[in-house]
Amino acid sequence: MSKQFDVVVIGGGPGGYIAAIRAAQLGFNVACIDEWKNANGGPALGGTCTNVGCIPSKALLQSSEHFDHASHHFAEHGIEVKGLGLDVAKMLGRKDTVVKQNNDGIVYLFKKNKVTFFHGRGSFAATRDGLYDIQVTGAAEETISGKHIIVATGSSARALPGTPFDEENILSNDGALRIGAVPKKLGLIGSGVIGLEMGSVWRRLGAEVTVLEGLPTFLGAVDQQIAKEAKKAFDKQGLKIALGVKVGEVKNGKKGVSVAYTDAKGEAQTLEVDKLIISIGRVANTQGLNPEAVGLKLDERGAVVVDDECKASLPNVWAIGDVVRGPMLAHKAEEEGVAVAERIAGQHGHVNFNTIPWVIYTNPEIAWVGQTEEQLKAAGRAYKAGTFPFMANGRARALGDTTGMVKMLADATTDEILGVHIVGPMASELIAECVVAMEFRASSEDIARICHAHPSLSEATKEAALAVDKRTLNF
């Protein structure tokens, strides 16, 4: 007889492991299945985010930022550096240590919360007596059963048609995190979040980086005033960004990669690089899930079809994170994981898509929440806008990083905050205040009236709120 659980979670990424822990906290007998392996073949919980995404990329971004500061910015602080060197292997080793710490942390959390872990691939096998049989394929094959199933299998990098990843020359996010030496020339197809972050890492370390983007605008999902400010900064840093291109044949050879493309003027061009990162989005990871065995419905993109509460097409089957509709963000998956566990318990889980923050960890950082100015215009909504530049912020001057601004958008009549957009230092942290404000339907006046510590970067948020009413104090 198979082991039986109240809740079985397939996938141990940010959505899956959080769902499992929350369900266990609510008193359910919970199992989580995940097949990710570390270098020794052991479990590596945390999914794409922990293993080849959010966590390792931030580790490399931090290391490369230190190198960039030592190379170009320490002198202005009166700090002299002689004989500066770069040990890429050690840098990658530190990144791997950070990843392992996160992997091990999740293993500890499972033990603490009494979540039963199965190391292998989970797939649907059958339904019987109100339960779902889940086949676990791994070192030891077995079948377990669960009353509620949460699918949290994440997403995979989308490859260019006819150009598979070899993770040596043509790289997904996985290979981009394992480049063993600084390439002389690095190419990027797509100015997606992962691509820009990895491009930033290797540019700081000395690579000549060229980005080929098919869209005519840079960062089309970002408020365009903010995107233009970011592009100015990237141009100044030497990041080459070509917009409106049409990529043709990609040739992968022993000496590197050749990309034929047509530029925005319609002229044929060729980009020769040592390494090429493809960053053109991600696809739902349902391969091997065997949805046919139970009749689970997928959409035309291969994602699990769910309603607003993450309920799938079958009773007691749920799906969360990258494998369903909505933004492919780790924190969105976490929120859905908590919400589903609470819904299973008869509670009212809450996920507000309009207050999910977005962050690009480049330098300058880019972060936003809510609607852009372009979206408000398209919707015909009357609004007021206020901006404040970091060049007028005392803390930013002291940091030596005055690039960018905070921009706040509020309803013209009610003053409710509709969106906040930041490009500049620590934007990833500054956006949190704005998320809280929007979740409580605050007005720009509320932010303007709150006392912010001086000197701090957060004063730029207060000043942007003041600017909505055209009464900034420091600009």
UniProtKB/TrEMBL annotation:
Residues 5-337 form the FAD/NAD(P)-binding domain. GO terms for cellular component: cytoplasm. Its EC number is 1.8.1.4. It is an enzyme of class 1 (oxidoreductase). NAD(+) binds at G190, S191, G192, V193, I194, G195, L196, E197, E213, G281. Residues 356-465 form the Pyridine nucleotide-disulphide oxidoreductase dimerisation domain. Its main location: cytoplasm. It catalyses: N(6)-[(R)-dihydrolipoyl]-L-lysyl-[protein] + NAD(+) = N(6)-[(R)-lipoyl]-L-lysyl-[protein] + NADH + H(+). The active site is at H454 (proton acceptor). One of its GO terms (molecular function) is flavin adenine dinucleotide binding. Disulfide bonds join C49-C54. InterPro entries: Class-I_Pyr_Nuc-Dis_Oxidored, FAD/NAD-bd_sf, FAD/NAD-binding_dom, FAD/NAD-linked_Rdtase_dimer_sf, Lipoamide_DH, Pyr_nuc-diS_OxRdtase, Pyr_nucl-diS_OxRdtase_dimer. Its cofactor is FAD. Binds 1 FAD per subunit. It comes from the Bacteria. FAD binds at K58, G122, T153, G154, S155, D322, M328, L329, A330, H331. Transmembrane segments: none annotated. Belongs to the class-I pyridine nucleotide-disulfide oxidoreductase family. The active site is a redox-active disulfide bond. This is Dihydrolipoyl dehydrogenase. The gene is odhL.
